[in-house]
Write a structure and sequence with these properties.
With 459 residues, the protein is mainly beta. The chain is 4% helix and 57% strand.
Length: 459
Amino acid sequence: MFILIALIGGLILGFASDRFLTGWLGSSQLYIIGLTKEVDVGKATNVTFITFGNDKVISNASVNLEGSALGAGLTDKNGMLTLTVNATSGGNINATAGKAGYYNATTTMIAIPGLVISATPILLTSNTASFVTFSASSVGKPVGDVLVNLSGAGISLDGVTNSNGEVVLQVNPPRTGAILAIARKSNYTEGSTTITSTSQQILNVSSSHSAVTVNVPMYVTLTVTAGGSPVNDALVSLSGTASGSGITNQDGKAILLVTPGTAGTITVSVSRTGYAGGSTTITSTGIQSLSIASNPATVTAGVPAYVTFTVTSGGNAVAESTVTLTGAVSGSGITNQNGQAILFVNSTGTGGITAIATKNGFSTGSISLGVSGQQSLAIIANPSSLTNGVTAYVTFTITSAGSAVSGATVAVSGDGISAEGITNSAGQVTLQLNAAGQGTISVTTRKTGYIDGLTTITH
């Protein structure tokens, strides 16, 4: 504060000696100084005013702003007042000081519109040309004929905005780092922004198959990533013992049909603008043998079932191989890209079933599919006898090899009775029965995959 007061004293003396020394003493003229001569339009700026007269500071003097900004206040005991000046347009701002017993004094500031500049995009890749749009505005409105200068990261470039306040520049920084964009125009204060040049990411490529077979077409999925994220629109090229190319989708994947002509190495190369290339290899080998597996491994005679057969070679799924069934059943199918074929199997006997996998360029693979005979159903009735003319609830329990069988149908008929039900998870069903004569009451239980069970109820 003491330093500032001393500064004020120096300003007063200098002001008096330079401009108003003659005739000042004994007068009642008030003087005002603004410590800031220029402010930016649309930007709040704190400006300190000093009032003095008769070679001393004047306190409690009123200060009023008019013109491009408004404001008012009273100076303190040191003759100082700080106002926040926020000009809404360019031009002069008059600060008038007044106090009873003094002639008013006026000082003038200039409000200069400031430039605001923005860039899209703000992140670039070194050694990669990109189009960047720079937009210049002031007080929310676009400004044309603004000079935009770029410097940093090894570039120096200029452009001028159009009537929409925009200029598009092709920027190709040879190095990484910050690029400073400065906007300049007469009667405006400068504006600036920064864009950044970063290093290229490295492309990584992985293959769904580590090996393929000579003269055997194989669909191979190639996945391209950078920094752990998938990269679309990357070019994937094959060279070596096989050729071909493709473009990755939004998941960073490209599926290529690979048919090596000889044994050796296939090089998979990937590239995309703005990235450092990457590669991997696939081995092409001679004839490989086929392996086949089934799910389920066994079926039940007389029970239709869908069985999934999976064909592989060297741990890789083999598409377009033929799966043929012989023995207790017959049929065939072609594997998909996952090496799988789903066949409908309905064995009428308990003989074995052989599944054979074949494909050109591979040695044959086979597997035996087990076929089991059907198990019999057993019925237990409780109670096991009825009294004519008396209604009774009879619980039937259905088992097979000692285990409860759910979902079995139980049908009761004879001597005027006709009733039916389905067993629950405990293998039981309860039916209401009423015998009327001396005929036989028969109980039959059925379920697909089982031999029917039969019994009778006495009465």
